[in-house]
Amino acid sequence: MFKKIFTLYILISLFTLAIYSESQPNELGKFLIITYHVIGDKDTAYTRTIQGMKDDLALLKKGNYHPLKISDLENRNLNIPRGKRPVFITLDDSSQSQFDMDEKGNISPDCAVGIMEEFKKKNPDFPLSATFFILPGAKHPNNLFGQEKLTSKKLEFLVKNNYEIQNHTLWHANLKKYKDKIEEQIVESQKLLNKYLPDYKMTSLAMPFGIYPPKDYEHKLLSGKHKGIEYKHNLIFDYSNRPSFSPYDKEFDPLHVRRAQAFKDNIEKMIQKYSESPDSYVSDGDPNTLTFPKKSEEKLNPKFKEKMKLVVY
Fold first, then answer.
1. Most buried among 17, 76, 209, 247, by the most CB within 10 A?
2. pLDDT computed for residue 282 by the predictor
3. What is the pTM of this model?
4. Residue 117 belongs to what domain range?
């Protein structure tokens, strides 16, 4: 009898320890910044199916992820409940497949915004948000979601419904090739957006094609001026198909923030992996503390030793 009780005690202890270990915060872990392009009928390198995007959102909820906006990352404001994993959903190129509506303002259920709005209704406990990296001067259907008569209505809807808008240059210029046009591409993009949203400032940039200009020009991605108009970006995003470092990790580089590509096999595997990996970012639920395992201590950016209370276990 004693042997059975002791065995049961050991099993319960191990089970409890496993649960406890899985829920341990790790705010020096890696997290996902997911990038979608076209929402369509077939999965390709740049297209995710309608059902595929729905499945991705369901996987994110199941994996205990908590969506945030790019401005939250800019401000190092990963203030989410304990045990949750941050995720950033981004959509590049402002195509009509991302946001389609009729003249009465009814949003198509098959575009990205329609899919997300429907998911919000069915899952009010999942605070869904996303960031759109736009191309205001691109050709149709990428010229601010492709329906010129409805552009103002669409942009106003986004800012009123917990979405965010950021810069992707004027018309998707390869900034290695157009290195002398960097300031122009950034400022003219901002100017076109301000025709519809006069006070809206874009504060981060996603690199077209993931291609950077020569090193001597990279500073222009962060700040500059064109025709008397100044700009400042806090983060520059690549397209390297890798998870991002924690913003508290000394390897986090504001000029080269990593993103993951949302094509079928890739994104499903990455969502699954980082919902289980001991190396993924897990929140401690307290915005004033930074919690992580002792084995990760060497990753910590020294500047946060003074700024935040550290909890090391």
1. 247
2. 98
3. 0.92
4. 26-285
